[in-house]
Amino acid sequence: IKRFEEEKIMPYVTSIERSGIQTGRLTISRKYIIDILEIRFEVVPSPLRETINKLEDINQLENLLKQAVTIASLADFQQLINS
Prior knowledge:
Blueprint: H1 2-7, H2 15-41, H3 46-54, H4 58-70, H5 74-82
Helix pairs in contact: 2-4
């Protein structure tokens, strides 16, 4: 029982660490979205970059990341963000 309990001990994560992890996820998601759009469409206009970099909802960013792979155009992507 003691060995089992020791194996199941979860490390304590402070609120500051959680915040840092969340910030890292946001930053990486934004970067990947822009990278994918650049690969697909070559140039990502500055206003679109700024809009992406202001997004704070990780679920929205994860959805946009998936959409960036298949969306037909940058205009469609911009429209998706604005909706």
